[in-house]
Amino acid sequence: MRERTIASHFVRAALRGAQRRDQDIQPLLRAAGIQPALLEEARARVSPEQFGRLIQVIWESLDDEYMGFGELRSKRGTFAMMCHAIIQCRTLDKALTRGSLFYDLFPEAPHIELRRVGERAELVLDHSRLHDPEHFLTESLLVIWHRLGSWLIGQRIRLEEARFTYPEPAHASEYDLLFPCPRRFGAESTGLSFQARYLDMPLLQDERSLKHFLKDSPADLLARPDGGDSLTSQIRRLLGRDCRNWPDLESVAQQLHMSPQTLRRHLREEGPNFQELKDQLRRDLAIYHLGRDELSIQDIAEQLGFSEPSAFHRAFKKWTGLTPGAYRTQQGE
Description:
- Helix content is 48%, strand content 10%.
- By secondary structure, the chain is α+β, with helices and mostly antiparallel strands.
- It has three domains: 6-69; 78-220, no CATH class; 231-330, Orthogonal Bundle (Arc Repressor Mutant, subunit A).
- A hairpin with a 2-residue loop joins strand 3 and strand 4.
- The protein is globular.
- The two termini are 26 Å apart.
- 35% of the residues are buried.
- The model has no long low-confidence stretch (mean pLDDT 88).
């Protein structure tokens, strides 16, 4: 999953809070290794490492884990103290409840509430106090709490639904990496649903593992793409990194124990078709390799299965708005 890339929309959205606090964003981008010109291209993408660095830099610059989106700052170290407060809890239920109570100690903080309704559990977020027009912090908090909970019990919590009070955004196709589950917009509340059985599971982490966890969190939780068990993620894993020997749709369907017709139908429900999935994986692999100096552009084109470099140039410009050479130059500046 390390080759997954992140749309430039999220970079622009992450910077809105800093701009709201009258922060000069150019040094923030430079510190994260992101060229400002990249933001002018709507189709451009960055690596998870660059995005993670950007989040860290914004936190450090503003001394605010709410990244400028809150009414008041959440000083750096607040998340770590919350983690120390919950790490001794016996079950996930107790940990998430205590974590919610911890943040309720701070005035103007967004309120997160854990609810248990029969066999379903819900994490509901009240984001009404945030100055977050693009819902960046709102979605970030949901992602962080979900991935924190998964880490605490040592297994990924499979989401059943993610819902949002606001309309579906133009970049909704990117949500597969954030919320790999059915998504509902225009809902009555914003939150995540999952099976309540996870709440009764014991915490498998302790103070020692927490120390290692907090080295890069919560930025790492936010920046690390997570396709989970979605069909598109399963197909990406089956395709692998060698684009020259990719299996066809019939072979992939066979490995997933379904008919080609069923696979096509499920893909229609999730979004991209089989060819679009291959193109997205090629795009992400291209960005991954262009960000390193190990391969020439011609070698990358060959590895991605293009018969000639010119075809790779045309495809990459269609994907990102930049030529491979321009992208590599920007990354190296």
